[in-house]
Amino acid sequence: MALVHDLSEENSSRERIEYLSGHDALTGLLNKERFTAHVDDAIDRAAHGRRQVAVLHVDLNRFSLINEGLGFDGGDELLRQTASRLREAIGPMDLVARLSADEFLILAPDLGREGAAEGGGAGAVAADEAQAIAEGVHRSLESPYEIDGREVYASAAVGLSLYPLDADGTPVMLRHACAAAHQAKRPGEEPTLFHGGDTTDRWERLSLAVRLRKAVETLQLVVHYQPIVDLQRGQTVAAEALARWPDRDDLVPAARFIPVAEDLGLIDSIGEWVVGEACRQALVWQEQGHKLEVAVNLSLQELWRDGLAERIAGQMAWVGLSPQSLMVEVTESSAMTDPVRTRKVLSSLRRQGLTIALDDFGTGHSSLARLAELPCQVLKIDRSFIARLPGDPGSAAMVTAMVDLARRLGMRAVAEGIETEEQLGFLRELGCPLGQGFLFSRPVAAEELPLSF
């Protein structure tokens, strides 16, 4: 009996070792090596059966900041829950693997069957099927994570590569899917992208990084201001400070260089500099007799830095600016990444006397209960809703509801992205108090800021 017991334990140990050699210990998903072998097999089958194969690279957004807020144990739990959600999101023939800390891979074999059966169009059908899988991935991440009694939200960029459309083997597929995911993480991009060739010029990005570091070190950035207008009176009542980078013959907007600045660890330096410039300019306008509130944007990385409220208060005190003259803007998606932590930070800013604005409202995961808990005084309605006014009934209803919601919560509503007189007329009739957009002015140098319309 002892011999049988020993042999049973030995077999169990071997099975465990075999399992761990092909699986991720934290999530139980396949590891890269085992996943790669499955992709090889799928490509071999596809080559003989006129099928298509898709690899999806799923890259969680802001995981390092989430991990920092939750601690390593909380971060691990988020990854385990993400693994479970991805398993449920894919089809019975698909496979999911963990590539690294916050990156996952999905294999969808034997795509394009319908197109092949019809004698053509397999590639288009496979692309649609892969897109549907990616959409399922995004939906699986939408609901809040419950971790240690806290609600946390996560999202991801998804890159896709298709065999044989853009790759002829496993290594190329993995590389292309990764490149597409990294492209999808850039501001303004769709959350899902197919590989479309060499989308990332590494040498150009390296050159840009070198130039940006030098620009920050030598204070070559500038701040432009876009007016926020009282829609009923046609008067500028505030101005949003927006960093710009004069690079070569171009004036580069923040959306293009801030991601690089975050990668280089320069975002805190840029953020502090912009706040300082905004405070000084607000004081200049006050001395000229213009009581304008100045708004500055905070990234999630800045928002979660220790001592944020004290640093901003110190900068205002240094130039002699009253706190009521400064507004800080935080996007809805950033605020909802960890609502409990965000509320604490925003409350500390509010105690310093600053005005808090929730930016890009309508694009994130806010519930009415969460919104009511945040110490915000300004609600900035995302431009995507304004763009379809006044002709789109759905957008008109949404904007009407948002303006009414802000009013009921004692907040000022700001309509972003106003570009036409028709949009302005609708918002005025609705009673929306504030707005900004190219109809009034693009971001301009401080001395060019229009004060009335």
Description of the molecule:
This protein has helices spanning 2-22, 32-49, 63-89, 113-117, 122-140, 170-184, 202-217, 254-264, 267-287, 300-303, 308-319, 332-335, 339-351, 368-373, 383-386, 393-408, 421-430; strands at 52-60, 95-100, 103-111, 145-147, 150-152, 156-163, 192-194, 222-230, 235-247, 250-253, 293-297, 326-331, 355-361, 378-381, 412-415, 434-435. It has 2 domains: 15-199, Reverse transcriptase/Diguanylate cyclase domain (Alpha-Beta Plaits, 2-Layer Sandwich), CATH 3.30.70.270; 203-448, EAL domain (TIM Barrel, Alpha-Beta Barrel). An 8-stranded mixed beta barrel has the order 8-9-11-12-13-14-15-16, surrounded by 4 helices. Strands 2-3-1-6-7 form a 5-stranded mixed sheet, sandwiched between helices. A two-stranded antiparallel ribbon has the order 4-5. It has 453 residues and is α/β, with parallel strands linked by helices. It contains 17 helices and 16 strands. It is elongated, with a radius of gyration of 26 Å. α7 (202-217) crosses α8 (254-264). Residues 116-120 and 197-201 have low confidence and may be disordered.
